Fold Polyprenyl synthetase family protein.
Amino acid sequence: MTKNQLAPELLDKLESFLSTYPFGQKPDELYDPIRYILKLGGKRIRPLLSLLSYGLYQNDPEKILSQAAAVEVFHNFTLMHDDIMDQAPLRRGKETVHEKWNPNVAILSGDVMLVKAYELFLPSPAEQLGEIIQAFNQTAAEVCEGQQLDMNFETRDHVTEGEYLEMIRLKTAVLLGFALKLGALLGNASKEDQERLYDFGVSIGVGFQLKDDLLDVFADQAKFGKQVGGDIISNKKTFLLIKALELAQGEDAKTLNHWLQMEEFDPHEKVQAVKSLYEKIGVKKLAEDKMNEFFSTGFSQLEEIQKVNEPYYQSLYEITQALVHREK
Amino acid sequence: MTKNQLAPELLDKLESFLSTYPFGQKPDELYDPIRYILKLGGKRIRPLLSLLSYGLYQNDPEKILSQAAAVEVFHNFTLMHDDIMDQAPLRRGKETVHEKWNPNVAILSGDVMLVKAYELFLPSPAEQLGEIIQAFNQTAAEVCEGQQLDMNFETRDHVTEGEYLEMIRLKTAVLLGFALKLGALLGNASKEDQERLYDFGVSIGVGFQLKDDLLDVFADQAKFGKQVGGDIISNKKTFLLIKALELAQGEDAKTLNHWLQMEEFDPHEKVQAVKSLYEKIGVKKLAEDKMNEFFSTGFSQLEEIQKVNEPYYQSLYEITQALVHREK
């Protein structure tokens, strides 16, 4: 098997596992939304990280499909509840659960999804289950902390770079770290390798979010999936805006605040103006440097692990590098 | 130690455990609501059942305070989320979490509470943890199913007695069954006793809900904590109303439907009229008979278990009998 086939084959198996897993039947309003949100797709990057991470140490990653699926089910639970809180009408171009059904259904169906995530961890060896649940509990609580901080930042005037990086670490990066650690733990990797893979996941996770912030402003509209500039239009406190507010001087500061406070504006004009400011003030470069710093830290952590199965290492490296270089 | 001191002493220890457990600190909006809802009190009947059930087989119930607390934390998580769904302004006379903070805080803080419930199970022996989490997952999913059915019933014209009994079994009774089974399992009771205690809990749980339905209409207002007749005023589909709709004939059926459809009415008048109908049609007696049938089934299941520690058996019997005979 060549390196390039590993990921697609594992993704096929995972998809088949997810689409046939007996989440439950009655009442419909409780279980249909689980199947609905899982069918909306997504890159399944988190469970793939678990499978490849396990594959570094053992040759039978299909043995941990259930635990890998747990990570994806948990991720989709957070999306279902976050979408209620953010009042988001769409998720991956389709109606969100609280729109298609109602907010109560999205609350309760999400609750059951969290229970099902725990259920999916159960086929683990008894001597590892406690450690897995403990690591997962910590990650799950941290993801909730990150979401709460993100909501708090919306109504705060001032957010520091450090606070922002900590928020994205909690809200998105620790789950990538957990996904990788989970595979390593189940694959009986050394404690050191488990921690290295965790750290690798957290580092690239923070980098991926910084990349998201950059793409939202600077992506090529022809290649980008959604409207470029959405974060600028909504004054979202991304790394770019936080640094711009910190560093802008004189006229630049005035212009930036002018756009932030304007209630009626031409979206295209605002995006172009703020984008130019980001380049002029130098925060585009600062964000790129910070992102690359996290990627570089991450991949040096990855390099230090024991590479038992080279093809899985290659696949893991390629998959994560593709995300580092993505343009959408 | 005499039988009567066991429950109060265990409840003291449980309260102290709950009030000092490190649920988490930052952000405040995530963790303060957990401490807030737990401080509102309640009878702590579920964790007490776990402790007494364990005490039937082992003399050191303080060893499972964490797991007993898990049941109470889970129960309060369901209250926090149910209160959002029911738009309830008050819980035990105090503002509900979504009122005191906001619905997003109640969603996310509830999510973390569910994670913390799993965390509290972790100090269990490794060889029992999988079984505990599996039994808990099933119960947790069933409680959500019950809540969804309860919401569905609100907008349905017709609900059968069987559907209602199944809904209350899921929404409230299985958690009592699980609480008892948990204690027995951790106490190394036989599989048979674990199931008997589970069945006992489910049977009395259904009985307690039927008792709630009856008290809401027929309680002595001087002894009852809240306004008698609330279910009648809101047309709540309780056992009484479901059976009355099924059995009322001629004039009685007309009068009942008249009150159900009236949009403006004197509450006291409606309560008196529907209450009289319940007695006349005979559904008060039907509900009492059904309730007693569940209690009687329950206690005969309890009698069959092996009574290793008689004082704990006495305490368990007294506590549950007090609930059978409560007047508020």
Observations:
- Chain B has one domain: 3-324.
- DSSP finds 15 helices and two strands in chain B.
- The first strand of chain B starts at residue 90 and ends at 91.
